Amino acid sequence: LMPHDVNKAITFIRRAVKNGEIPAEAVNKSCRKILQAKYWVGLHHRTAVRTDSLLADLKKPAYYNLYRDLAKHALILLKNDHDVIPLKGLDQVKLATVTIGRQESRIEGAVTDLYLEGSHFFLSSTEGEKGQEALLSALQPFNTVIVNVLSTSTRASRKYGISDATVRFLAALDTTATLILNVAGVPYALSRFPDLDHMDAVILSHNSDSLFQHLAMQGIFGGIPLTGTMPVSAGKLAKAGDGIRTGPAIRFEYAQPFDAGLNEDTLRKMEGIIQHAIREKAMPGCQVLVARHGKVVWNRAWGYHTYQKRRAVRTSDIYDLASITKVVATTAALMKLREQGKFHEDSVLAVYDPIPDSSNKAQLKAGDVLSHHAGLEPWIPFYLHTLEPLYASQHLISNNRSYTYPYKIGNGSYANRHVKYVDGIYRASYSEDYPVQVAENLYMRSELIDSVYHWIHQSELLSREYRYSGLGFHLFHQIIESITDTSLADYVRDQFYAPLGATTLGYKPLERFSVDRIVPTENDLFFRRQLLQGHVHDMGAAMLGGVSGNAGLFSDANDLAKMMQMFLNGGNYGGKQFLEPATLALYTACYHCDEGNRRGLGFDRPLTDEPDAGPACNAASSLSYGHSGFTGTLTWVDPAYDLVYVFLSNRVHPDMGNNKLIEMNVRTDVQQVIYDAIIE
């Protein structure tokens, strides 16, 4: 099929015809097919072809989408025991990838990490027995192993680039794990493997090109369907026409804007908005993700972690989501409990054990609290109870900035520079009496948690109208933990984040990730007296140990988008039904529209009748919903356009008095660019 010496190939074919090994008509039939194809594309009208720009002409961007589509449909799934592909139950998967034959790019591990973070290994195709044994030992903790055989050859005389050492390694793999083999070679390369019975799945991805390998990994996780069939027979495993179809995509596909009906040139206009915001110090950097029709087509990062510009933002870096926690943790948990008959938005809070009957919150309807229509105070600065001025004649807070009150902590609120912690509340290290970590080297007495809830239970009720408040979400934190008899952090991890493969999404990121990967928020000079990095910015959530219904979640844009896509899919993602469509429809709809309240149950919604107002851009439809976060975050879903948008930043760095991101409408201006880019 691919002769390296054409003249020699012709000589051998002639000899085979002469000796009766190949019928002359077979040769003639093949030649006629080729001539017909040439005639069909007009080659009988010969025109000169410029060869000086041949590669540039063939690599025009307009051709890329067709090339990608061809590559996607060419991938062949030849074996799929027990339907292991696409991978399911990601909360049970401990993943390792082994790349044989190419070390420089590691594209395979980078792609699988988009679906589920794992460990990645490289093995030389000539690795000796000792090195192979070391790798086999390192793979023991993993229950799922993807082996990618790359850098193959088209020539049989070179064993198709697959060494005997590679064959021995594959044969020695632990069969108790789920084993997936991806061969980037010609179909005949499969004949190099005498026995693949112990492999659970086998994929032929043709070549080591980054596009083919990117798509092959997506196919393993169900980001794209696998539909290819064998063009020829190759060994015992595959016959011509063989190929297993996996059905429609069940997770994100990582594609190009054109694939989702978006104009890439228009999307690039957001870069000007973002770079201007960074120059104006509205934020040090940010992540932006755009997904449409279930395809992530824009996942990019700009700027740095801080204004010192020592670490550029990467798309895998982790941000403090702030109040996005309200929908992605608390509201999601309540929807799940509602479906189990354990919670209902029409119930009063007194139905649930943690809310004392003596509290004026006891008779509040849960739906009113969720929609910020219950008359709760906007917030309570709990942390001020733990601070006192060094000078008894001074106050903690002033309405005017001065030398003594330099730190802006709110609109018209400035904090005293001369303060101390109230005696007996904090310690620098963990102990049984001081188990609650508020920040680095700052631990609080556990009794203060009860005080936080007491202050909420006894707080004043205001007029019943729309008034944004986080206090009710602290109460829902109590309710969820009482019903489930587990921590909120563990409940949402087990019910949502782990099955989604949303590895970075969760509370207390320092327990799971390196501090360098977490983007800093405020340099808190007043309360915690340190640069916050991996510890929640919200003071109330900090006093609850970093886990609350109001704030505390961290994530990168990609993992947060999985949760939002699940909402958009009517509660389904990765082949699993997390929530029912009817529940999502109820909670994302306007709950008190007749009283001038745009909010849903937990979810925020757009102001479609008032331009340049509300949390979303003007183009967002009335069906859209999402939430923003104090730290400079926003996530939004629009069912009318099948669209997911995530914006993550740390605008509160170095201090939360910086409101430029809000004043400049950066998040909504970037969102408007996405709508402007829609072409179909």
The coarse overall form would be elongated
Structural class: alpha+beta
The overall pLDDT average reads: 95
Work out the helicity level: 25-40%
Major pleated sheet? 6 strands, mixed
Q: Report Rg.
A: 30 Å
- The termini sit apart by 41 Å
Task: Provide the β-strand percentage band.
Answer: 15-25%
Major sheet strand order:
1-6-5-4-2-3
Number of strands: 26
Low-confidence stretches: none
Number of helices: 20
Give an account of the 3D structure.
The chain is built from 20 helices and 26 strands. The strands form 8 sheets. It has a 6-stranded mixed beta sheet, with helices on one face. Strands 7-9-8-26-25-24 form a 6-stranded mixed beta sheet, sandwiched between helices. Strands 12-14-13 form a 3-stranded antiparallel beta sheet, with no helix packed on it. Strand 17 and strand 18 form a beta hairpin.
